[in-house]
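User: These chains co-purify. Model them together.
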Amino acid sequence: MNANLVTLITGASSGAGRQIAVSLSRSRRLVLHGRDAGRLIETRELCERPAEHLLWNLDLRQGERIEVSLTQFIEDHGLAVEGFVHCAGALKVQPLRLVERGWAHEIMEVNVMSALEIVRLLVRRKLNDRHLRGVVLVSSTASQFGARGFSVYCASKGALDAFMRAAAVELAPDIRVNSVLPGALRTAMTESMLDDDALKTRMEAQYPLGIGEPGDIAAAVEFLLSDKARWITGQQLVVDGGRTVNLTA
Amino acid sequence: MSTLSDPNFVNPLSLRSRRILVTGAASGIGRITCALLSRLEARVAAVDLDQTGLESLELPGEGHARRCLDLENVDAIPAWMAELALEGGPLSGLVHAAGASCVQPLRLLTPALYRKVLLLNTEAALALARGFQKKAVRDPQGGSIVLISSVMATAGASGAAAYSLSKSALHGLARALAVELAPDRIRVNCVAPGFVRTPMFDRMAALWDPAQLSRVEAAHPLGLGTAADVANSIAFLLADTARWITGSVLTVDGGYTAQ
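Assistant: Joint model of the two components:
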């Protein structure tokens, strides 16, 4: 096995991304990406064989810096990137009339454009030869359904899934591209929401299997990245405890 | 980097000592699924109409059962499921892989023909779910039902009216039951395969000319699939890896519906 083969995970410093890193570290060498260097180091310490994994620190809101930064990172470490998991995501809930172009653009950069930019770089022969085999984009059930105050987030996740399908068709048969669509999880981001008892009760009623754990998403990502999913490409796998099929709540 | 040498490693897809009913077990996707589930240490209850096919099924491990049964006798399903549970213990999983194909232009699609397709593909699935929900049948720890639908549930093709109808109904069934059975800790999902090389596919492909076959192949960006590709996804949905997945359709089609 090529010791330089790695899987890149964006948004690995917290929540689902951190758990995906921990799960994948059992069988893969990783490049952990995150914005917060301190929390990224914490993630690495939670991984199997922490010393093997590399850290790539960049703010994905600055999309124009990805090309230089990632190219240099791969060349400096002599890496062959075989897998890519895009888990970085930004969310801001605001009614449409209060949306500002500035932060809306940043959310599009983090949620969609950075994924497109990274896949574009990883399929460059000069940079990564033909090493890339699997891509999993962590989308959201918000790509399929609307919610008040979620216009920018829904647009970004809808675009992410549309990109996923187009890339799946264009990059077949060498590279498989799929997305996982989580519902609300118990993470640091939602912990404060779930502290609110009324909101927690309402949310639990919407989820036939209750609120999810980051490990539930990690299991789906790991499956899609593995050879067990060798004939799955261009698909959205919904992992939401039944939330989006539930009309009774 | 391998975890297989780690004595504490637990295969996340492990189905150790869980009992899983598989219909259509003698051939195609059902047959390969039985083989995979037994390798994942499940106890398989294999059901099919084809006695010879059932007998030749190789199931490593102990505690398996084989039953030659006609699923078109829908009314009898819950009763024999109760019997099966009484004899060999409760069920943790159900895979409905039995199915009838049907390629007929609408003008030749008689009620007798389409009712037969609906009976096996759809009504039997509903009866199996009814049987599974019974307290005497299911494992109190919870369960997972996987219904095998098809890309024809979401895509159209000439001559596929009855088949599409029967398979898209499974998506509706899975969504409704996902919500209704969640309090019993029963998850319900579909796997929707594209064209997979099975005996059913070969029977269908025999009606095509070579140009049509190469068109079908070309329509799958990853090429035609194998029954093992589908079986792996079934195992994923049965195992704890999918403990927060219910009401979902996992499409395994080599990119057929992505373009």
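Chain B touches chain A through 44 residues (CB under 8 Å).
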